[in-house]
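Hello support,

Our group uses your service weekly, and this is the first time we've seen a run hang past the timeout. The protein is Cytochrome c oxidase assembly factor 5. I'm not sure whether the cause is the sequence or the server load. Input pasted verbatim:
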Amino acid sequence: MSTSCKGLLAKYAECIRNTECMKVRQKDVKDCMAEHAPECEQYRYSLFQCRRGQMDARTRIQGNKGY
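Update from on-call engineer: The timeout came from a worker crash unrelated to the input. Re-ran successfully.
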């Protein structure tokens, strides 16, 4: 992954770590990510858009905007 999405990935991982799934139920990170916690949905979508932008030829040359 390029460095343009690393900030979003870090925020998403931090959000997942702070969910009830990780703190109370002590589940694995992968299981908690599969549950799609509503409080982390914005980070998940932004990360998806960033990764998708890396596949677009224009954004590969110009870089992702705003990250």
